[in-house]
């Protein structure tokens, strides 16, 4: 595969995750990269997407963002994760291949209740569509139901040999059910059923409370200096 592709670099701007830090992104602008096969390859290089924009952190003085992926065929749930699965045993899940009309009200309630201090507040439909929908790659939407009520949706990309967790939103009424963790466990389960090797979880940022939870699913690999490093110790 050719690696002679055109990339762009953004100007530095205030970091969304770490105070007093400047953020800069490397953008995959080459049209030859705008397809599922190339995007699957870019994920192995530490890239990710927001809508149809493919990016990778490219900061001048910081390397806190590290891509992380779970080895789904070797994954073993921890004691706390097993307890959560038992606690949420009355929940069921369904897989949809398209965005449904009842997703947006759930998303809006989630953003406007739980993330009022975030960059996506207040939620709107245009933001919802541009952020989550994609023409680059096939998607699945993992719905979690409590009886007749939709309580969570995990937006997930289907890559060549992996799934990629894009974003999960859920009903604030079920916050105590740890639906974010529960959805990752379901994504691991589904990735294994699809015969995928990995579940990509995005960027682990150790010093950011909102982004330091992704290294709790063992074993995993973390991208350090462009090398995937295996981690198996819980």
Summarize the structure.
The chain is α+β, with helices and mostly antiparallel strands.
Structural class: alpha+beta
Gyration radius (Cα, Å) is 17 Å
Largest sheet: 8 strands, mixed
| Span between termini | 36 Å
Quaternary state, please?
single chain
Q: What series of H and E elements makes up the topology?
A: EEEEHEEEHEHHEEEHEEE
Helical residue percent? Answer: 10-25%
Throw out a few tags for this protein.
single chain, about 230 residues, alpha+beta, 8-stranded mixed beta sheet, 4-stranded antiparallel beta sheet, 5 helices, about 30% strand
What's the layout of helices and strands?
Blueprint: E1 7-9, E2 13-14, E3 22-23, E4 25-28, H1 36-44, E5 48-50, E6 53-57, E7 66-71, H2 79-87, E8 91-96, H3 103-114, H4 125-132, E9 139-146, E10 149-158, E11 162-170, H5 179-193, E12 198-204, E13 220-224, E14 227-231
Can you characterise this structure?
The chain is of the alpha+beta class and 234 residues long. Helix content is 23%, strand content 32%. The strands form 3 sheets. Strands 8-9-10-11-12-7-13-14 form an 8-stranded mixed beta sheet. A 4-stranded antiparallel beta sheet has the order 1-4-6-5. The longest helix has 15 residues, at 179-193. The N and C termini lie far apart (36 Å). The model has no long low-confidence stretch (mean pLDDT 95).
